[in-house]
DNA sequence: TTGACGCATGCCTATATCGGCATATGATGG
DNA sequence: CCATCATATGCCGATATAGGCATGCGTCAA
């Protein structure tokens, strides 16, 4: 097998820089595909494909508006990522010296604990 | 081209579930490869390869300890991701009705603004 | 109905990834 | 120096991705 987890989850969806750009743009409001493509300097099919991925993981929603199709942000899916990375906050706040010490302590405790 | 941005950035590094698991485990302290592999139920080469990716993006560091090589967490690289997702916090906090309204307002303003 | 516009898809290529397996490399102990 | 443990790598295969290009489909206007 290759690439077990595919683009079908949020982590992968935002691993693509252009998709992140799209999300950022959509913070300013709904937009049709063409406009997004233009502002980001990509072709329309390319934008559509990225939007499809974003839609499949639930980060954007679309609604028809006459001839156009407006894409809008649904950022709720980003929350889990924010929280997951937040679980490491204490580690990047510690200075490295202290972090090492902390880590040593843990390892010590782990070994004494038997596992 | 395919997959323009590769595993050489932090977003891609943590897009892999097993790499995230490794990072979580490392919060409890430094560990040798074999132990990580065992606890996560993966083969040693597999663990080594994931660790290599994590090392290349700076999320883990390694140091020799006799015959072993201990891997330790360096979570600083996760901070940008935390902050990037944090930029969407107001969007997932808004109820969707209000969000739509907000978005409409922005769009309105954008159009009136001439762009 | 026809034409024009807006967008989604299909097909194809190049490439990168993950995984498995075997093996190279490194360090330690005798 | 040799055997052994710990880890890194190399090579291969299967698969999925991103992008390009052409084209299909739906909607609106005349």
Fraction in beta strands of chain A: 5-15%
Please give the largest β-sheet of chain A. 3 strands, antiparallel
The CATH topology of the largest domain in chain A is Arc Repressor Mutant, subunit A
Q: At CATH's second level, what is the architecture of the largest domain in chain A?
A: Orthogonal Bundle
Largest sheet of chain A, order of strands side by side?
1-3-2
Largest interface: A-B, 38 and 38 residues
Number of strands of chain A: 3
Report the uncertain regions of chain A. Answer: 106-115
Count of spatially separate domains of chain A: 2
Task: Kindly describe this structure.
Two copies of one chain form a homodimer. Helices cover about 55% and strands about 10% of the residues of chain A. The radius of gyration of chain A is 20 Å and the shape is elongated. In chain A, a hairpin with a 2-residue loop joins strand 2 (about 60-65) and strand 3 (about 70-75). Chain A has a three-stranded antiparallel β-sheet. In chain A, helix 3 (about 35-40) packs across helix 4. In chain A, about 30% of the residues are buried. The first copy, chain A, folds into two domains: about 10-75, Winged helix-like DNA-binding domain superfamily/Winged helix DNA-binding domain (Arc Repressor Mutant, subunit A), CATH 1.10.10.10; about 90-115, no CATH class. Chain A is of the alpha+beta class and about 120 residues long. The first copy, chain A, is built from seven helices and three strands, in the order H-H-E-H-H-E-E-H-H-H. The interface of A and B includes residues 24, 86, 87, 100 and 104 of A. Chains A, B: GO terms for molecular function: DNA-binding transcription factor activity. Chains A, B: This is Metalloregulator ArsR/SmtB family transcription factor. Chains A, B: Pfam families: HTH_5.
